[in-house]
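Milestone 3.1: sequence recovery, worked example.
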C-alpha cells in the first residue's frame, strides 16, 4: 500500500513513520519537517554493501552519493555501515571531514572543481578524485606536486549511453557537460596524459548514466562499454586500469504503483555482465564501485506540512496551501516530479478529494503536486508528502527568506533532531 516499509497507519488512524505518529512529530517539532527512518536507510546501505560482498568477494565499495541527502548524521551512518561517500563540492567534502568520515572512502566529483576545492581534497587526503577534464587534470597534477603528493584519481568517462526512466538509447556522441568522451578520443588522450604525471596515480574510470532509472539494461551496457575502454586502454597505452566506478541512478518508488528493480537483482545482473565481459576480454575483474544516492534515502523520508488555506475554485481546482513548498521541495517545480500525499491525521480515511498542493512562496509555479488525491482536508491538518528523502533537503533554498525546515531521524520509534530548523537570525547572519 505504501511507497516504503517504514510507513504505516496506527489505531488512531494516523500515518506513522518508523513507528512514530507523524501528526505527533509535527506537533512536537513544528512544520515543515523532514522525517527519516533510520532502520530502513541502514537496511538499504547493508543491501548494497552485501551485494559487493556477494558478487565481487568484497573487492569493491558501495558509496553513498551524498548530494541526495548530506548532513553529519548521514556521514556517521555511512561510516558505521562501511559505505563510502561521494562528495561533489567543497561543502559536501567539508561536511564529511567534520563528521570524521574515513577519507580513504571518499570519492570527489564535480565538472568544475575550483583550485580551493582541490587543495581541500589534497589536504584532507581524499581517497579518489574523479577528474572531469584536462584543465582539472593539469591543475591537480601541479597542486599535488606542490604538496609533494601523488593523489589517486579516476577519470570521468561518458560511455555514450543516454538513459531515461523507462527506455534508453545509445548515442554516437553524447551531449553532456560531464567527463571525457570515448568516441572523440579525448578519454584515451587523458589516460595517456595522466599516466605520465607524477602528481596523480590513475586508478580507475567512472561513469554515471543518469538518475531514477528503472531498467537494468542501460547499466549492463554501460558496464560493457567501460570494460571495453579499460581493455582498449591496456592495449593502446599499456596502462592497467584496476578500478571501475559504475555510478548511481537506481530508481525508487515515488508512487505506490512504481516498480523499481530490487537492488540485489540489479547488482547480480550487472555483476554477471562484468564477469562475463572481463572473461571475454581476458582481463582481471576490476574493483567495482557503485554510488547510489536516491535509493538509499529517497523512499525513507517524508515531509510534514500544516495545511493553511483550502481554496475551492468552482469548476477549476482546489488549492490546498501548506507552510512550505518549492523552498523545501523544488522537484515538482523543476522536473514535474510525481509525489503521493496524504493527510497524516486522517490516514485511515479515503482519498476522496483531487487537489493541487501549493506552497507559500510568491510564485504561481510554487506547487508540490497538481491533481492529486488526498483525504478531505481543512486548515490545521497535517499533510504528508511521501518519498521526499532524496534531493529535497539537499536542494532546499531560502527563497522569500523562508528558513529551511528541521530534519528528524526516527530509530526504534524514538525521534531525534539531526538538522535544526533555521531561525530568522540564521537568515541574516551573513548580511552586513
Ligand atoms: N554519482 C554521480 C556521479 C552522480 O552525479 C549522481 C547523481 C549519483 C551518483 C547518484 O545518483 P542517484 O543514485 O541518486 O540517482 N536533483 C535530481 C537528481 C540529480 C542527480 C545527480 N547525480 C533530482 O532531484 O532528481
Amino acid at each position: 500500500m505504501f511507497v516504503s516499509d517504514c510507513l504505516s497507519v496506527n489505531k488512531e488512524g494516523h500515518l506513522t513513520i518508523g513507528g512514530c505518529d507523524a501528526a505527533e512529530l509535527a506537533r512536537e517539532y513544528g512544520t515543515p519537517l523532514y522525517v527519516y527512518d533510520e532502520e530502513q536507510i541502514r537496511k538499504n546501505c547493508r543491501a548494497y554493501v552485501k551485494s559487493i560482498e556477494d558478487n565481487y568477494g568484497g573487492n569493491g565499495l558501495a558509496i553513498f552519493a551524498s548530494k541526495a541527502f548530506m548532513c553529519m548524521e548521514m556521514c556517521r551512518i555511512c561510516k558505521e555501515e562501511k559505505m563510502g561517500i561521494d562528495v561533489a563540492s567543497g561543502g559536501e567534502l567539508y561536511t564529511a571531514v567534520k563528521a570524521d568520515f574515513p577519507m580513504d572512502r571518499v570519492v570527489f566529483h564535480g565538472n568544475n572543481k575550483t583550485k580551493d576545492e582541490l587543495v581541500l581534497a589534497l589536504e584532507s587526503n581524499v581517497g579518489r578524485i574523479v577528474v572531469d577534464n584536462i584543465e582539472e587534470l593539469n591543475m591537480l597534477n601541479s597542486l599535488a606536486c606542490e604538496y609533494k603528493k601523488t593523489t589517486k584519481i579516476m577519470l570521468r568517462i561518458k560511455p555514450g549511453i543516454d538513459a531515461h526512466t523507462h527506455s534508453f538509447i545509445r548515442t554516437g556522441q553524447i551531449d553532456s557537460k560531464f567527463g571525457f568522451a570515448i568516441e572523440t578520443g579525448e578519454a584515451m588522450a587523458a589516460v595517456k596524459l595522466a599516466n605520465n604525471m607524477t602528481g596523480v596515480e590513475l586508478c580507475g574510470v567512472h561513469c554515471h548514466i543518469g538518475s531514477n532509472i528503472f531498467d537494468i539494461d542501460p547499466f549492463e551496457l554501460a558496464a560493457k562499454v567501460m570494460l571495453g575502454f579499460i581493455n582498449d586502454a591496456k592495449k593502446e597505452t599499456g596502462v592497467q586500469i584496476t578500478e571501475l566506478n559504475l555510478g548511481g541512478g537506481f530508481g525508487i518508488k515515488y508512487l505506490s504503483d512504481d516498480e523499481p528493480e530490487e537492488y540485489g537483482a540489479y547488482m547480480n545482473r550487472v555483476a554477471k555482465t562484468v564477469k562475463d565481459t572481463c572473461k571475454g576480454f581476458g582481463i582481471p575483474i576490476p574493483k567495482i564501485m557503485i554510488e547510489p544516492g536516491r535509493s538509499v534515502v529517497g523512499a525513507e523520508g517524508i515531509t510534514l506540512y500544516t495545511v493553511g488555506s483550502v481554496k475551492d475554485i468552482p469548476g477549476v481546482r482546489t488549492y490546498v496551501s501548506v507552510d512550505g513548498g518549492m523552498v523545501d521541495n523544488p522537484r515538482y517545480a523543476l522536473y514535474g516530479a510525481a509525489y503521493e500525499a496524504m493527510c497524516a491525521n486522517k490516514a485511515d480515511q479515503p482519498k476522496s478529494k483531487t487537489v493541487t498542493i501549493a506552497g507559500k512562496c510568491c510564485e504561481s509555479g510554487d506547487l508540490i503536486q497538481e491533481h492529486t488525491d488526498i483525504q478531505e482536508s481543512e486548515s490545521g491538518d497535517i499533510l504528508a508528502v511521501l518519498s521526499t528523502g532524496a534531493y529535497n533537503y539537499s536542494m532546499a533554498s531560502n527563497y522569500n527568506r523562508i528558513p529551511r525546515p528541521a530534519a528528524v531521524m526516527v530509530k526504534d520509534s524514538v525521534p531525534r533532531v539531526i538538522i535544526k530548523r533555521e531561525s530568522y537570525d540564521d537568515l541574516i547572519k551573513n548580511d552586513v
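The chain has a mean pLDDT of 95. The chain has two domains: 7-30+300-428, 38-294.
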